[in-house]
Design a protein that fits this description.
The complex is a heterodimer of chains A (419) and B (175). Chain A is α+β, with helices and mostly antiparallel strands and 419 residues long. Chain A has four helices and 23 strands. Chain A is globular. With 175 residues, chain B is mostly helical. In chain B, 68% of the residues lie in helices and 0% in strands. In chain B, helix 1 crosses helix 6. The radius of gyration of chain B is 17 Å and the shape is globular. The chains are: A alpha+beta (419), B mainly alpha (175). Chains A and B meet through helix 1, helix 2, strand 8 and helix 4 of A and helix 1, helix 2, helix 4, helix 5 and helix 6 of B.
Amino acid sequence: MADEYDNLLDAAFAGFSAAAAPHVKLAGMDPVRRTVRHRRTVRVTVASAVAVIAVIAPVAAFAARDRGDSGPPLPGGSASVQVSPPPESPSPSVVIQQSPPESPRNTDTTPPSAAGGPPIASTAVDCAHPATGGLVSAADLCNLTFTLPAEDQIGPCPTGKLTFKDGKSGNVQLLRVLQADLGSIGDGRPETVGLYYCGGSDPGTAALVVFDRVGADIRAVDGFPSYSEAPGAIRWVEDLGADGSGELWLRVSDRVGGGMHPITVTTQWRIYQWGGDKFKQVGGSTSFTSPDRGVTVASTLRAQPASGSSQHGALTVTVRNTGSASVADVSVRVLLSWMTAPQGDCPVVPTETGGGDRMNLCSAGTLAPGASKTFTLRYDWTQEQADAYAAGQNSTGLAMMLFGDQRVDEYNLPPMSKN
Amino acid sequence: MNPLHTEALDASPPASQDIDEFYAAHARGLVLQLYAFTGDLGAAQDLVQEAFCRALPRWERLRTYDDPAAWVRRVAWNLATSRWRRTRAALDFARRQREEHVAGPSPDRVALAAALAKLPPNQRKAVVLRHLADLSVAEIAQQLGAAEGTVRVWLHRGRAALAAELADTWEDNHG
């Protein structure tokens, strides 16, 4: 039977290769070199910007909290990295601890109708779509030069004068267009909103620019949401719409991309309204973190270099009932990088994608008030596996803990020690 | 095995081989593998270009590996399959929104692509790596981070399901 399969399948794959090979267009190494040079330049620029954000962000977060308003809560969980001798070995190990996230305020003000999305939907951009009723059209936006103020920056993209041709300007790309009345902006006629993707072959981000017509000119009124790589920040805008009353609805997520893996992406509709000079959020969730369920999740990652070119480590996850009533069916799901081959208390469970990453289910059952349970997952991987993962993911490996539908902790596995 | 595979035959380049030669020797075969796995030729080409973007800054180190092709293949497949493949997700999203498509052979003419798409991802990966990359069970197990016994099960089930699907298609077309 194996021979029969071999003949049939070898013929099928040979036919596939012969049919597909002429269609493969190899761009060659020159574009690769240009991309690598560009990324080096961008990284230098971004590194400078991050140093500034690191100073400003805590101040802004504290200010929002001090007002007692519904501003974004502080991201849950703070991480510390320390080097300490593990009890089982004289060689050093790296320990990363995640403290239990501060119980987030339950600020979810999402109206019941938000789940279904707004009644006025955006459309995929069509650069040939004609203008109607004097409104700014998709065709206008596809071939438009406008000035975007620095404070309205689209992700890591350039600001200032942007010139679009056929919907593109460098690595900025127009994706979707919405025409709707967004309140008393400009001439009172409905406004046009463009959803832009920026990033080229980098992960990038997506953001909006709102336009209005001023006389014969088209003016960029506002660009948002502001770009940030801080935990809990909006990283992507999947869609937009309006309800006809002046509210602008954004479907946002905390992960870059089109929601390939819903389990790791939190997506919400958030509602914005024109505030006279900027759009401001007036409805929907203000945070990607989960409401307080009376259970905390704390974790520690201990990575220990082994002799030679491999590493082994252990991830411990502790769930604790901090409430005053028992909580049933407490479980934490842990995703680990696909090469780590974890073993331990939490069995691997099937995932919907079969993508190869390991989803482990740590089930604590019913936790009485004050009770806790600790799980340990051990993993091993080699220098070459770590190199390949680091190159593929721009990280040294990942461990991600999910409680309910919410991501509660996430680690980059520490880099392999150099021998 | 498929005589047209181009990626695994010369897995150990001489130390003097530069990355342009390495690209010329391996990129096309890798695109075909990822096209078979994803069913999207444009995405497969993007993934291979991206894998070489990751390889270029590390080339001096990679060229000392026993099998640098395995490294690039692993990165490309990792980009294609990982849960955290943010880059591809972004590219997919942008491409979908723009409704752009890369020309490729018609699915009707490539029954294998349609049949592969019906396999669970792990079986599909194992079968493609076996027949297009010409990897052994041990090499597939190493690349996918799975036990050899598990890979044998994936291959057995995947090949059987694929053969049945192709036989049905052949009967429909010729019976």
